[in-house]
Write a structure and sequence with these properties.
Structural class: alpha+beta
Radius of gyration: 17 Å
Strand content: 15-25%
Shape: globular
Distance between the termini: 33 Å
Mean pLDDT: 81
Largest sheet: 8 strands, mixed
CATH superfamily: Gcn5-related N-acetyltransferase (GNAT)
Helix content: 25-40%
Number of helices: 8
Order of helices and strands: HEHEEHEHHEHEEEHH
Low-confidence stretches: 1-23, 154-180
Oligomer: single chain
Number of strands: 8
Number of domains: 1
CATH topology: Aminopeptidase
CATH class: Alpha Beta
CATH architecture: 3-Layer(aba) Sandwich
Length: 268
């Protein structure tokens, strides 16, 4: 089974939430950018030590908490896609602990498939976005997003789905923005920065359709390229590129992205 698909669950945007969003998004997002950079630091996993931190977080979430995989003796969860992937984490500055991780699976040849190609290829119904239409060096997949339980202490985060970035339906109210899992959004932004700098022009992800609709709330507009299928719940294939990502971010969340981008690029 590929844990590269995000096992996600999130709410449908309602009319009231849309109206609230139009009034609050820039102000609240600006505050989020400030708080994010104060307490959290995105980290490119450039060393073997940092990669081990990634594998430990994945083991904690995917093996110990969610039991999607058997626990490993060394406490690290790895798979066949890791040798051709790049990784990132987010560190909690006050404690110096790593909160979460994500990877971008890359491909340099037909032998290096993306998880979506190997496990969910038939779900891709829009042939315009078939990964095999593009240069192998220019495709990638956002995968293995995981958030440790220690950093999901809010009432809205005390359910298993939040381990992989989900938004709980009961939190969808006038305080929508403040209930968003901003660590997960930060991970997407880190992944976007790394993908752009890596030369990846076409990115894919399998996610729950309601989450994709919710992500539009901050301007991350994934393009659905197939109907949902049953895969640990209802999941659909999505596509995004740099132009779609950057052109649609709300102004407040662009500020957050720029801060994350600056931090990641300073580490190269």
């Amino acid at each position: 089974m590929s844990l590269g698909r995000l096992i996600l669950n999130s709410p449908i945007i309602g009319d009231v939430a849309k109206k609230v969003a139009s009034l609050k998004v820039n102000h609240d997002a600006g505050n989020i950018a400030q708080h994010f950079t104060k307490f959290l630091k995105p980290q490119y996993a450039s060393s073997e030590r940092l990669k081990e931190e990634v594998f430990k977080i994945r083991h904690n979430v995917y093996c110990e908490e969610l039991a999607f995989e058997h626990q490993k003796d060394d406490g690290m969860e790895m798979d066949e896609f890791d040798p051709h992937s790049i990784f990132a984490l987010i560190k909690h500055k006050p404690t110096n602990n790593y909160t979460s991780c994500v990877r971008i699976v890359c491909s340099s040849s037909d032998d290096e498939l993306l998880p979506i190609e190997k496990f969910c290829f038939d779900a891709i119904q829009d042939d315009n976005y078939n990964p095999r239409n593009f240069k192998r060096s220019e495709i990638g997949e956002f995968s293995r997003l995981a958030v440790k339980a220690d950093f999901r202490r809010r009432k809205s985060d005390r359910f298993k789905g939040s381990a992989v970035g989900a938004i709980h339906e009961s939190t969808y109210s006038e305080s929508e923005l403040r209930c968003f899992p901003f660590i997960a959004i930060g991970l997407y932004m880190v992944a976007g920065t790394l993908a752009i700098d890596k030369g990846i022009k076409h990115a894919f992800v399998m996610m729950e359709p309601r989450l994709a609709r919710s992500m539009k709330f901050v301007g991350i507009k994934f393009v659905q390229i197939g109907e949902p299928i049953e895969y640990h719940g209802l999941r659909a294939p999505y596509y995004i590129n740099a132009e779609i990502f950057l052109d649609n971010l709300t102004s407040g969340f662009k500020s957050l992205y720029k801060e994350i981008q600056k931090e990641i690029r300073s580490q190269f």
